[in-house]
Design goal:
With about 550 residues, this protein is an alpha+beta fold. Helix content is about 20%, strand content about 35%. It is built from ten helices and 38 strands. The strands form nine sheets. Strands 9-10-13-18-21-22-23-24 form an eight-stranded parallel beta sheet. The chain is globular, with a radius of gyration of 25 Å.
């Protein structure tokens, strides 16, 4: 049995349709409850008399994540099926990134897109789809790309159409400065050169081209990007880079000139954004490899701050640092996408891969970003070459999908632009804002401790807990054992307004519904303090404290 939305994201005034797959006794009456955080906002009954059915549940307010629970008449307390959906009035916000990379004739099926749909992926990178990095469209329908991968242009077009029908935005991989040897031989002055006077070459295949404003390569690149949209039907471009070089010599003039790429990349992003012609505003995502040069590109005309994570950003605290860094320089409400590839799914003890994924995803989402992690048919990324992905087992896929459901259902607790991260300023020393008792707590993701991330706004406080207890190190890209269960975690939180409710939720249990926590209020020399206990923490839990707003 299964239930999932018909689209990865719904727009304002759009009817929400759910797909229900049923393999139990028929006919049967079910009850659907729709939740906004802990509140039931809609309840309806349906008579199910066939194994596959579309259920119309009406229209919902924009900019909210919703949970869906299915109950039977025999069990009205524990849902037998769950999913989530969200509604937006701004499709370019809150982007959840996934990938496709298999494009042969035999690869044309709906399994990959169906998996992405169930994970609520709303923007999809078509990775290494082009004929050449300098010549996107092949003269033949069937061809090999520069890495020798077999591709069918007809399969790509069909997947683009299908992705759009599911509410996803297909965008084309397009390296910013990569060209083939043949193209370089025809245009040697268009390339970048090192300080020894030699051209830059990546893995002996890709020649690094000159992207400064006066370079003919820039105009050529724009034409190729436009072909991807006009001929293939993509809705935008993933502007990939390699992170190196950061400085290079231009040979366009008689005397070589040193170029600092961090000064040219921002103008390239803006020019592509302004010049690309698409039916709607094109989606544009630029790859800041190793967070470079986020300080220059984050505020440019693109839809997300995308960071591909490499050493030395190798600790859990590094991930939180990158997200704070991106948010500071973006200066707007762009989505922050973290491309952190998990090699434990490829190397070492596979039993330690899923725990690593759960802890990493909890970290990224709790800090207000999303994770480029999954794609194809239940596949995950383990390295920078996406075509060498790894498949999830059925058990792993079920857990990962539940984490995506959780992210969407409680998105208002993760992606509210007003929430400010106060983890390092409101705990420890003689700070009384947030205190705990009886457990080892860390504010920056130390091993063998509970990592407490705190974000707050005027009438809401959010506490996100990542359980690193039992881990011997804090490297996000190493396999992890299952954390040691933590129980009865005591909190004391200072408040300025009367508290209306405290709830907690977790994706680590089959029931994603929120649980109300009881609390007591005390008057102290530092003001009102509320005390409460979190009963258990497995991997990741979220606590939110809502204050009364009529004060």
């Amino acid at each position: 049995m299964d239930i999932y939305p018909l689209k990865s994201q719904f727009n304002t005034n759009e009817t929400v349709i759910l797909c229900l797959e049923w393999d139990k006794e028929l006919p049967i009456k079910i009850t659907l409850k729709i939740y906004s955080l802990a509140e039931v906002v809609k309840e309806c009954e349906f008579d199910i008399n066939q194994i596959n059915i579309h259920i119309n549940i009406g229209k919902f307010d924009a900019s909210l994540g919703y949970g869906v629970c299915v109950f039977t008449q025999n069990n009205t307390d524990i849902p037998i099926l769950q999913t989530a959906f969200d509604v937006t009035n701004s499709p370019h916000k809150f982007l959840r990134y996934g990938f496709l990379s298999d494009f042969t004739t035999k690869d044309y099926n709906n399994n990959a897109l169906k998996w992405l749909l169930k994970c609520h992926i709303n923007i999809v990178q078509f990775y290494d789809w082009s004929y050449r990095h300098d010549d996107f469209i092949s003269p033949e329908d069937d061809y090999q790309d520069m890495m020798g991968k077999e591709i069918s242009a007809n399969t790509i077009r069909k997947k683009i159409v299908d992705a759009k029908s599911l509410g996803m935005h297909p965008i084309a991989y397009g390296a910013v400065y990569a060209a083939s040897m043949n193209f370089f031989a025809k245009h040697p002055k268009w390339a970048f050169y090192n300080s020894c006077g030699d051209p830059f070459v990546f893995i002996d295949i890709f020649y690094i081209m000159n992207i400064i404003e006066s370079s003919p390569w820039r105009a050529h690149l724009l034409k190729e990007y436009q072909k991807a949209i006009s001929i293939m039907g993509f809705e935008g471009i993933h502007m990939d880079t390699y992170g190196f070089p950061k400085t290079a010599y231009s040979h366009l003039n008689k005397k070589p000139e040193l170029v600092r790429l961090e000064n040219s990349l921002p103008t390239l992003i803006d020019e592509i954004s302004e010049e690309l012609i698409c039916e709607n505003k094109p989606y544009l995502i630029f790859n800041n490899v190793g967070a470079w040069p986020v300080h220059k590109t984050a505020d440019q005309k693109q839809d997300a701050v995308y960071i591909e994570v490499w050493p030395p950003y190798d600790r859990y605290s590094s991930i939180a640092e990158l997200i704070r860094y991106a948010r500071y320089y973006a200066r707007d409400s762009k989505s922050i996408i973290i491309a952190a590839y998990l090699k434990p799914f490829r190397d070492g003890d596979r039993t330690k891969a899923l725990p690593a994924a759960r802890l990493l995803m909890g970290t990224i989402v709790s800090c207000g970003a999303t994770h480029l992690f999954t794609g194809e048919n239940q596949a995950v990324l383990t390295q920078g070459y996406y075509s060498n992905y790894s498949r999830l087992s059925i058990f792993e896929a079920d857990i990962i999908r539940r984490y995506y459901d959780y992210m969407i259902r409680y998105s208002n607790l993760f992606y509210d632009e007003e929430l400010q991260n106060v983890s390092m300023t409101h705990t420890g020393w003689d700070n009384y804002e947030y205190q705990t008792d009886g457990h080892n707590i860390s504010s920056y993701g130390e091993s063998d401790k509970i990592w407490m991330i705190i974000r707050e706004k005027k009438f809401r406080k959010c506490i996100y807990l990542i359980n690193l207890c039992g881990q011997t190190e804090d490297y996000w890209n190493k396999g992890k054992v299952e954390p040691l269960l933590q129980e009865n975690i005591k909190f004391a939180v200072q408040v300025d307004f009367p508290v209306s409710n405290i709830f907690f939720s977790t994706p680590d249990e089959n029931n994603l519904n929120a649980t109300r926590l009881t609390f007591i209020e005390r008057n102290t020399k530092v003001g009102k303090i509320i005390e409460f206990i979190l009963p258990r923490l497995r991997y990741w839990s979220t606590i939110w404290i809502d204050m009364k707003t009529d004060n």
